[in-house]
Amino acid sequence: MLRMDGFRYLPARSPDEAVAHWHGHDAAQYVAGGTDLLPNVKHRIFKPRHLVGLAGALPRGWETRPGDAGEMLWIGAGTTLSALARMAEIPALAAAAGAVAGPQIRNMGTLGGNILLDTRCLFYNQTEAWRTSLGFCLKAEGTWCHVVGGPKTCVATQSSDTVPMLLALNASIRLLGPDGLRELALRDLYRFNGMDHLQIRPGELLTHVIVPLPGPGLRGSYQKLRTRGAIDFPQLSVAITGTFQGHGVSAVSPDLEIVVGAVNPQPKAIAGLDKLRGQALDDAMLDQIADLVVKRTRPQASTHGDPAWRRQLAGVFVKRALARLRDGQAVPVEA
Ligand SMILES: Cc1cc2nc3c(=O)[nH]c(=O)nc-3n(C[C@H](O)[C@H](O)[C@H](O)COP(=O)(O)OP(=O)(O)OC[C@H]3O[C@@H](n4cnc5c(N)ncnc54)[C@H](O)[C@@H]3O)c2cc1C
Ligand code: SF4
């Protein structure tokens, strides 16, 4: 059995109280559902002296509010993944939430925790005894990356299932700090550094995720590769959104977005699609888009699965999904 070291638990009843607790106590961390944080505490990767409990502090559920660019869906960061998986407003986001882990974890895990979960690596998400025997690594207590084979770069993977879809939907997040609220585009949240992948200020609290409400004809798909369909993290994920109206859509949609996740510290929106928009979406174009995705996807060996195989599979996922979206068919989540 893995035992946690002692810490003081500080339950917060409002976002402001949570931020005040975090800033008023040393070595503090937020805990929402705890499904990512507590295993890391048990593995002594994190050693908090204070845990600020968010269960009674964060907004849950979602509502539509008017925004500058049309109707926006405001989703509370405390919304559980199982609730989100039942959302009718954006079925592709519901599918991505429903692909996280298994039912028990989705009942506890929150959207906020999913967006901010730590990066993962085969050499890092291990018990302290396991890591001691290998000699630790750059991300925690060591000086060497066992994946890259060097002393500088960490390529631990951003592995949230909802994030590629939220990026494809052009979502933003609302953060609360001691100086007040601010909004950040989700595309500006992540950077390519597995040791420090989040561009937020210390102690900022994620309160809401804001998603433009999709217009008519916007469809999406989320596909995930994992070892065990019942519970595992992704080894590769592909989110696609675009306007696919009716059966047999004949052109590349002007708002097509493809985001590849679970291969790097930073999820990647595929660049270069703008040149193809409006051209015929025939089988040759499906190959061209799939080739572009393979070219721009460089998986790391920080997670399970041969990187070269996962890279090729990104193209397979994209081609399969686009063909089905074009032909008005559903896209299954599992490979
Ligand atoms: C066996 C297993 C399988 C899993 N499989 C998957 C999977 O397939 N896909 C996947 O995406 N995830 C998976 N997870 C990870 C995790 O369950 C989910 O990502 C979940 O959404 C995390 O949410 P949480 O509320 O439990 O976060 P927590 O564990 O409570 O927090 C995660 C991190 O975010 C911070 N945090 C949480 N909420 C806020 C907030 N509102 N503001 C600021 N900081 C905050 C915490 O301090 C912590 O650093 C798995 C976990 C386990 C144990
Ligand atoms: S990528 Fe390297 S430094 Fe980062 S967690 Fe893995 S082994 Fe450690």
Helix residue percentage: 25-40%
Number of helices: 10
Distance between the termini: 34 Å
Main sheet overview:
5 strands, antiparallel
The number of E-state strands comes to: 12
CATH topology of the largest domain: Uridine Diphospho-n-acetylenolpyruvylglucosamine Reductase, domain 3
Strand content: 15-25%
In spatial order, strands of the major sheet run 4-5-8-6-7
Description:
The chain is an alpha+beta fold and 335 residues long. It has 3 domains: 7-52, Uridine Diphospho-n-acetylenolpyruvylglucosamine Reductase, domain 2 (2-Layer Sandwich); 62-117 and 156-212, Uridine Diphospho-n-acetylenolpyruvylglucosamine Reductase, domain 3, CATH 3.30.465; 218-326, CO dehydrogenase flavoprotein, C-terminal domain (Enolase-like, domain 1). The chain is built from 10 helices and 12 strands. It has helices spanning 15-24, 37-42, 81-84, 91-98, 103-108, 111-116, 128-134, 162-168, 283-296, 307-326, and strands at 8-11, 28-31, 50-53, 62-67, 70-76, 172-177, 180-185, 205-212, 218-225, 236-243, 257-261, 268-269. The strands form 3 sheets. It has a 5-stranded antiparallel sheet with strand order 4-5-8-6-7. A hairpin with a 2-residue loop joins strand 4 and strand 5 (70-76). The model has no long low-confidence stretch (mean pLDDT 95). Bound molecules: flavin-adenine dinucleotide and iron/sulfur cluster. The site of flavin-adenine dinucleotide (FAD) has 34 residues, from strand 2, helix 2, helix 5, helix 6 and strand 8.
